[in-house]
Design a protein that fits this description.
13 helices; Rossmann fold; DNA polymerase, domain 1; alpha/beta; about 300 residues; globular
């Protein structure tokens, strides 16, 4: 099997209870990653059919090998925002549940070659898919100081965005910033470490990743299309890891409910238990929201 860094799936029990309501239904993981949720769900519900979708070619290659002997799991390459057409290509009209686990996979986060990692220096890439044209290198080295500051503040919620952007622009006049290590060191020098366990460049890296992959716009564009893929009674379960994603999901679910398109299964966000956070620290910022489609959610 290819060298792919695995991860522990977040809140498996909670996700199972929210997502699976028909034991012989069809369920989609739109951000399958290393297949952690797919593996657990397919084992627990052997009568169901599961489809894993991922935009990352490395993930797709790994998943196809991982589930090559599992008849109930099918893997597709693509963007979850294009779920309708992806399912149509399989002859599937509607499904019973859809899971989106937003953000980075462990493999993406730790693999130096992917350019997401602060710890493991690699090229400033940060693309989920190599088919995307814009890289983090392009943003860091070509945007104006004002544009960089806006991205870092808006998507990273970084209060020191202006100073960081100014220092990036000053540094690149000498030579382009080419690696994640160079950028991380520059940000650390720009704002200082202040004794925090979290690297000072964390919010900057988050902002550049979101901007490189147009993540928030992709999510906003995807949600109405995804609702169309669900049967009546079907559930959409979304795991987010920062306030920007969670806000988009929360507001969309609320609008749907107010329009009579279904109901939120949890008004209050679900978070991992303290035991899970201690066992799997990467789950600490996870937030889960779920929506059930009603008869009012059907297009006329």
């Amino acid at each position: 099997m290819m060298n792919y860094i695995p991860h522990k799936p977040v809140m498996v029990s909670e996700i199972s209870q929210l997502l699976i309501w028909k034991e012989n239904g069809i369920y989609i993981d739109g951000t399958a990653g290393a297949g952690g949720h797919l593996e657990e769900l397919s084992k627990s519900f052997p009568k169901a059919v599961f489809v894993g979708i991922d935009i990352d070619n490395e993930a797709v290659e790994f998943l196809r090998e991982k589930f090559s002997n599992t008849e109930s799991v099918h893997i597709l390459a693509g963007n979850y925002a294009d779920m309708e057409s992806l399912l149509t290509s399989m002859g599937i009209d509607k499904v019973d549940g859809i899971l989106l686990d937003l953000g980075l996979s462990t493999h993406q986060a730790l693999s130096a070659s992917r350019g997401f990692s602060i710890k493991n220096s690699g090229p400033l890439d940060m693309r989920f898919s190599v088919s995307q044209k814009v890289t983090a290198y392009d943003l860091v080295n070509k945007l104006s100081q004002e544009e960089l500051s806006d991205i870092i503040y808006r998507y990273g919620e970084e209060p020191r965005a202006r100073k960081i952007a100014k220092d990036i622009v000053n540094a690149r006049t000498i030579k382009p910033l080419e690696t994640t290590g160079e950028l991380a060191d520059l940000v650390a020098k720009s704002v200082g470490r202040h004794g925090s366990r979290i690297h000072p460049a964390t919010r900057v890296f988050q902002a550049l990743r979101i901007a490189t992959n147009d993540e928030l716009s992709n999510l906003e564009r995807a949600l109405p299309n995804i609702l169309n893929c669900l049967n009546i009674g079907g559930r959409l379960v979304i795991i987010s890891y920062h306030s920007l994603e969670d806000r988009v999901v929360k507001q969309q679910f609320k609008r749907w409910e107010q329009s009579g398109m279904g109901e939120r299964l949890n008004k209050k966000v679900i978070k991992p238990s303290q035991e899970e956070v201690e066992d799997n620290p990467s789950s600490r910022s996870a937030k889960v929201r779920a929506f059930e489609k009603g008869a009012g959610g059907v297009e006329e």
